């Protein structure tokens, strides 16, 4: 009993010191940030950084258990907001999801612009210029193939940035957007494979149809796993990465078939394998970096909280992979239009 008052007096004394310091901090903070009240930061006694609009930035130890995902990322988490408005307002702040949001939001906007304008105002004109009016016309299937890829790329990147923006809302909303994020990846892989399949096998519609059916079945199977709550758990991170790698690798089946059916050189020309190779390197490297949490796993937690962590590198790899696919698709389309295809077998 005798030690309790002494302990509490020590606590009170230290509280006073902290309070005086806090007062100085708050006073200084108010002076510096008077002109920018909307984003001014007040440091509270428990060490949380609290914004005026009540969005809290916390570290790993102050985080709800459901929000704990990557133990190597220590600081910069937005605490559960339970508010769509606060999640949207967090876009103006620097936290550890900021780079994840913008690395996919900006490219998704570019893909949306391409989806609206590219085939109608750029590709058709360019084709006529390059190939003349005999070869330059786009038919309906060309129009659909190029646009479904652009739609897939837009949906994948947009769902991803929404997930990173709204994952701090609450556990349920985070799970919902996480599933949308995975579905976006499945849609991008499916539309990438199917669009290029057409230019690989456009004069053999049976093989084109066969591989389209196979890709649809693989994509649907992945979709069933993604919508399962167990698959969403953080312990399944490596499994998730390998699942997507396997689905993307199923794109090798039509390529190998094409090499046997048309010969290697013709297969290379038909689907522009050079670009497809770079695309595969980007996606596989990105998935491995994401799955094994490189580079943060080699250092003490906290070194890559805001920049250059595995998830951000994975995002950049995804965007680069999608750009290489877009190049492959357009080059394959032009190659098919020139009419150099010849069946070797
Ligand atoms: Zn992401």
Automatic annotation (TrEMBL):
<dbReference type="GO" id="GO:0046872">
    <property type="term" value="F:metal ion binding"/>
</dbReference>
<dbReference type="InterPro" id="IPR004254">
    <property type="entry name" value="AdipoR/HlyIII-related"/>
</dbReference>
<feature type="binding site">
    <location>
        <position position="311"/>
    </location>
    <ligand>
        <name>Zn(2+)</name>
    </ligand>
</feature>
<feature type="transmembrane region" description="Helical">
    <location>
        <begin position="99"/>
        <end position="123"/>
    </location>
</feature>
<keyword id="KW-0862">Zinc</keyword>
<dbReference type="GO" id="GO:0038023">
    <property type="term" value="F:signaling receptor activity"/>
</dbReference>
<feature type="binding site">
    <location>
        <position position="164"/>
    </location>
    <ligand>
        <name>Zn(2+)</name>
    </ligand>
</feature>
<keyword id="KW-0479">Metal-binding</keyword>
<dbReference type="GO" id="GO:0006882">
    <property type="term" value="P:intracellular zinc ion homeostasis"/>
</dbReference>
<dbReference type="GO" id="GO:0016020">
    <property type="term" value="C:membrane"/>
</dbReference>
<keyword id="KW-0675">Receptor</keyword>
<feature type="transmembrane region" description="Helical">
    <location>
        <begin position="207"/>
        <end position="227"/>
    </location>
</feature>
<keyword id="KW-0472">Membrane</keyword>
<feature type="transmembrane region" description="Helical">
    <location>
        <begin position="239"/>
        <end position="263"/>
    </location>
</feature>
<keyword id="KW-1133">Transmembrane helix</keyword>
<keyword id="KW-0812">Transmembrane</keyword>
<dbReference type="Pfam" id="PF03006">
    <property type="entry name" value="HlyIII"/>
</dbReference>
<feature type="transmembrane region" description="Helical">
    <location>
        <begin position="182"/>
        <end position="201"/>
    </location>
</feature>
<feature type="binding site">
    <location>
        <position position="315"/>
    </location>
    <ligand>
        <name>Zn(2+)</name>
    </ligand>
</feature>
<protein>
    <submittedName>
        <fullName>ADIPOR-like receptor IZH1</fullName>
    </submittedName>
</protein>
<feature type="transmembrane region" description="Helical">
    <location>
        <begin position="143"/>
        <end position="166"/>
    </location>
</feature>
<feature type="transmembrane region" description="Helical">
    <location>
        <begin position="275"/>
        <end position="292"/>
    </location>
</feature>
<feature type="transmembrane region" description="Helical">
    <location>
        <begin position="313"/>
        <end position="334"/>
    </location>
</feature>
């Amino acid at each position: 009993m005798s030690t309790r008052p002494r302990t509490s007096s020590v606590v009170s004394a230290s509280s006073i010191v902290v309070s005086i310091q806090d007062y100085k901090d708050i006073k200084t903070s108010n002076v510096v940030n008077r002109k920018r009240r909307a984003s001014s930061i007040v440091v509270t006694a428990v060490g949380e950084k609290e914004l005026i609009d009540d969005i809290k930035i916390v570290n790993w130890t102050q985080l709800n258990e459901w929000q704990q995902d990557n133990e190597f990322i220590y600081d910069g988490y937005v605490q559960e907001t339970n508010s769509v408005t606060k999640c949207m307002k967090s876009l103006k702040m620097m936290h550890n999801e900021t780079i994840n949001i913008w690395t996919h939001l900006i490219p998704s906007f570019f893909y949306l612009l391409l989806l609206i304008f590219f085939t109608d105002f750029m590709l058709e004109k360019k084709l006529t210029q390059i190939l003349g009016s005999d070869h330059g016309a786009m038919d309906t299937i060309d129009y659909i193939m190029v646009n479904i890829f652009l739609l897939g790329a837009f949906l994948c990147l947009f769902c991803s940035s929404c997930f990173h923006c709204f994952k701090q809302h609450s556990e349920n909303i985070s799970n919902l957007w996480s599933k949308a994020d995975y579905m976006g990846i499945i849609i991008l892989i499916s539309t990438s494979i199917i669009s290029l399949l057409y230019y690989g096998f456009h004069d053999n519609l049976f093989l084109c149809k066969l591989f389209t059916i196979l890709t649809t079945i693989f994509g649907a199977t992945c979709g069933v796993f993604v919508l399962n709550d167990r698959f969403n758990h953080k312990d399944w991170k490596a499994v998730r990465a390998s699942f997507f790698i396997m689905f993307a690798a199923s794109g090798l089946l039509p390529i190998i078939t094409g090499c046997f059916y048309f010969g290697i050189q013709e297969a290379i020309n038909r689907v522009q394998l050079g670009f497809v190779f770079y695309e595969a390197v980007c996606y596989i490297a990105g998935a491995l970096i994401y799955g094994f949490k490189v580079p943060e796993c080699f250092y003490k937690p906290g070194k890559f909280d805001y920049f250059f962590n595995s998830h951000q590198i994975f995002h950049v790899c995804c965007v680069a992979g999608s750009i290489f696919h877009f190049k492959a698709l357009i080059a394959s389309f032009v190659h098919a239009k020139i009419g150099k295809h010849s069946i070797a077998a």
